[in-house]
Amino acid sequence: MEQGLLPWPPLQRALCAGEEKRVGTRTVVVGHRPVSETDAYVAQKFCDNRIVSSKYTLWNFLPKNLFEQFRRIANFYFLIIFLVQVIVDTPTSPVTSGLPLFFVITVTAIKQGYEDWLRHRADNEVNKSNVFIVENAKQVQKESEKIKVGDIVEVKADETFPCDLIFLASSSVDGTCYVTTASLDGESNFKTHYAVRDTTVLCTDEAIDALTATIECEQPQPDLYKSLGPENLLLKGATLKNTKKIYGVAVYTGMETKMALNYQGKSQKRSAVEKSINAFLIVYLCILLSKATVCTTLKYVWQSNPFNDEPWYNEKTKKERETFKVLRMFTDFLSFMVLFNFIIPVSMYVTVEMQKFLGSFFISWDKEMYDEEIKEGALVNTSDLNEELGQVEYVFTDKTGTLTENSMEFIECCIDGHKYKDCISEVDGFSQTDGPLKYYGKSREELFLRALCLCHTVQIKEADQVDGLIGHPEHRYTYISSSPDEIALVKGAEKYGFTFLGLENNFMKIRNQKNEMETYQLLHVLNFDPVRRRMSVIVRTTTGKLLLFCKGADSSIFPRVQQEEIQQTKVHVDRNAMDGYRTLCVAFKELTQKEYDKIDRQLNEAKMALQDREEKMAKVFEDTEADMHLIGATAVEDRLQEQSAETIEALHAAGMKVWVLTGDKMETAKSTCYACRLFQTSTELLELTAKTVGESERKEDRLHELLMEYHKNNFSSAKMIRVAGLKYGLIIDGSTLSLILNPSQDSSSSNYKNIFLQICLKCTAVLCCRMAPLQKAQIVRMVKNTKGSPITLSIGDGANDVSMILEAHVGIGIKGKEGRQASRNSDYAVPKFKHLRKLLLAHGHLYYVRIAHLVQYFFYKNLCFILPQFLYQFFCGFSQQPLYDAAYLTMYNICFTSLPILAYSLLEQHINIDTLTADPQLYMKVSDNAMLQWKPFLYWTFLGAFEGLVFFFGVYFLFQNSSLEDNGKVFGNWTFGTIVFTVLVFTVTLKLALDTRFWTWMNHFVIWGSLAFYVFFSFFWGGVIWPFLKQQRMYFVFAHMLTSVSTWLAIILLIFISLFPEILLIVLKNIKEKISCPSTPSSPSSQGCSVLLKVFFLTPANDECQRCRAQDSLCAEVPPPSLALCSPRDAQHPCSIIPAPPLPPAAPLFPPQHQQALSTALSLLPLGFHVLRQW
To answer: Would you say the pTM of this structure is higher than 0.90?
Structure first.
């Protein structure tokens, strides 16, 4: 017996007659019994059924995790610094770099360990689950992980298949079972599988146990849809539905099952922010090396003076000094590196990871992205790309199920050139809308409806027997199919009086218009595939007639029917496609017994082939589906999703270019693009299709012509185009794209692909129709790899969209009716296309602003931290004396300044979410990585340098006077450093408070709490004699420092001086916005201003509405608050006028709760200056 093989000669044979055992196959002995009594059974070595999706074990977790973490450049760098501190006599304790590194490594290890523990737990739930094996005509309960290849397994209803099984028998008489593969490919619809015909009758434990057979099948491969006999193969992870029980033999187990082979991590995607961080790190690493080099050089220049050499107790002979000079210089260089290494923010990586991980929950918790129909909200599969949502430049979207509802409704049909629509008529059963109805045509109409009732894979179940499905109110049957189109066609036939009653024992039953029962024997099903784009069935009537019915796309059916039959039907197909309907053509042919015998033989031979089975099957299908007769065509409507048009308009307004990639025909897709406002009536369309381009050898010439024409229109009349708002769109089909991406070797144009790409990139909207899944990914890859590497986003709902979802920078899956494979393979999943608007314009915008501010702030505060340390070396003879205590060095990034920026990066809303969603133009302000370009980076760097200079020299000059202490003494080294550090901590924290626009209790808690914690820690650290410290250098330093009133005033003054440029900048910016607001009334992003909005009415004038582009309209201004809406399909009614929502009030410069405190502080400044002047 072969895998998935329908009846073939004696089951006991291991191989087909004339076949030899080939490489790449495996032989499975059913029940572990040899075929012949004379043969000795030798147990074959296959893997067990244990699933392992975890990465670590208890024994290898520590070394493996540490190895993976130290492969990260930053972690490895700090490890080297730590080792230098341990080995070399450095000015700071190894704890100062070791503790932060330990914290980073520990937090990451705990996170990764917890995630792996969850995987271990999930594995154990599967591996330890109970299954029933048939042994010695009895059922034996075992754990799933103990199943071996060759075991006969019994699976009951609603249970999951524990391994990949060959379907032997079921409780159903016809040997069928129903399966859902939602956990594999996300397809939630029922699929029908068939038992091997020779074993269908073995439906008891005794009968199945007596089976003696071998199975020859191919070696394990990951493709879910490619196998030898897929209709007989039940995959691990699929669930048995509406069938009491089945028997199957295990052929693939454990990590060799298709589910396990498909379990692989998606390729790591790096965001633009990560690339910016790496670039900034290189700059700061250069700064670090420069500082260490300067200090090392100046140290030896300074020591070249005999009076500045080493002290007498450390003096060495001249020979010793010369001998070890190079080594001393190298160790001094390393010591300075250690002293200044805190300029590289090690804790930034942990903060960024925590921000991404915690921030992703806000998307999942968004109630506005929750869909009541499916009872689900948004899903975040990866949190590494949150900020990338705010940088999207190109959106690639599928059409069916993404822009449309994928809820098919039969609209009309065309039979022999006559269109039939609406409901049943009393006279002839049809309501005819064009063409006369004659009696002789009735047989063709009935033949067409019989084709709709027979050419499909729909199954019928009574409503009360189908899980989770609701029956139709007019009858007690429910249709089950993996294709919504097929259900719509069967319902359409039912509307005209022909009802499909189901399939039983390979006999299909239908009830005709006269309420008579008709029975057809189903002989063969030539299944649909995306390459053929059609499917066929071969049936035998009760009178013995052999008929082949075929349905498929017009491009697939027309070349295979009589050419004289095409023209009348083609007119209707094209018109329906222009109306936005999905069209299918129906054909048939009558077979003689001799023709059928030949087809049957060829099909069985192809099914039994162990090599090149798919190619052989395709050849038989091609020969069989030829010389047919065209009967007619169908039109099925797939309505647009709610707010899909508004969403595309918003994406365009945000500066994004939207491309639609679909497998539908051009006319259907083009109509949908107009309906969803991808194309406007004013859009000038450029078409590159088989019809417009003509012969393939002229395609390059045609492309050059279109390119030249486009450039001519764009540059010669740029002013006119800008005033008129003209836009260009491109339409291309799959066949033309294939020639573009894979030009012939004798192509005369070497830059053919580049020319095409130039056309695409200059169009505001592109429609790619008749696309194969691989072509969708090629399109995304082509745009992604263009100059500038624009950020791409792909969104789709079906398995055929997975390739482009994985290819794009950001992949989004729709939780639609085509299953969940797209959402499972995506980075984010949303219930509807309309939710993309808020996901990008609001969440994406905010996430980018937050993390960009976080990155810049980390570099800024670490520069403020280290610059005084560098300047201090000029005043201590470059002796590597640290300015700050080791505890402050360790705690600065971990405790004192980490929580405020983390809270900011999670909660900040510099603009209200509703405003961001309503005004797409705000998205462009942060596009193209605007906040992480070199200009803002240099601003933050110079700001950090300025404040570092103020900290050091401000304290230095203010405390030169000995009168600052009551006893006349000057402050010591550690007091000086503590004052600098205090000003530093308060300044960088208050800087963040100035930047905060959205205050919550958590912001208050972490900002003021961090400052309070610093003061508490300083008192505590300096108020206790620590026995593990050799020197108590910080004892009572902080408390003694605060006893001086001069210190208090100096700290306040220096904080104000440091923040003054930032405060001045904010005030000037606020004044500028208030001044410019009245002068730009049309800007919807100007908050607090009255905005004059335009509304347009449709009038008989020969003009068009500038808002909706409807023809024959005239613009008229109407005062606010009003908005205009217009339907381009109805030019007889004016634009609807609706009230405009009030604009939000202008955001105050400071939160109300802080304005009084700020006023009080500012009023005290003159007093402070007066006191300082008296010094």
So the answer is: no
**Exposure pattern of 143-181 as b/e (b: 16+ CB <10 Å)?**
ebbebbbbbbbbbebebbbbbbbbbbbbebeebbbbbbb
Q: Residue 618 has which token pair?
A: 């395709």
pLDDT digits (tens, 9 = 90+) for 878-907: 888 888 888 888 889 888 998 999 999 999
Is residue 1009 within a helix (H) or strand (E), and if so which, with residue range?
helix 1001-1022
Active site residue 746: no
Residue 713 is predicted with a pLDDT of 60
Q: Which residues pair with 732 in a beta bridge?
A: 688, 768
Q: Which pLDDT does position 764 carry in this prediction?
A: 84
* Burial of residue 1174, with CB atoms counted within 10 A of its CB: 0-12 exposed, 13-18 middle, 19 or more buried: exposed
End-to-end Cα spacing for the chain: 103
- Among the listed residues 164, 209, 384, 398, the single catalytic one is 398
Residue 825 has, within 13 A of its CA and on its CB side, a CA count of: 27
Q: What is the pLDDT of residues 582-618, one digit of tens each?
A: 889 999 999 999 999 999 999 888 877 767 777 888 8
Query: According to the annotation, is 662 in a ligand binding site?
Result: yes
Cβ atoms of residues 526 and 625 within 8 Å? yes
Q: Is 770 annotated as a binding residue?
A: yes
Cα dihedral 566→568→570→572 (10° resolution)? -150
797 assigned binding-site residue: yes
DSSP 121: H
What 3-state DSSP class applies to 954? helix
- Greatest distance between any 2 Cα atoms in the chain: 125
What is residue 381's three-state secondary structure? coil
Q: Is 409 annotated as a binding residue?
A: no
Which among 357, 376, 414, 502 has a CA at the least distance from the CA of 906? 357
Q: For the chain, give the number of residues.
A: 1175
- Estimate the crossing angle of helix 898-907 against helix 845-872, to 10 degrees: 160
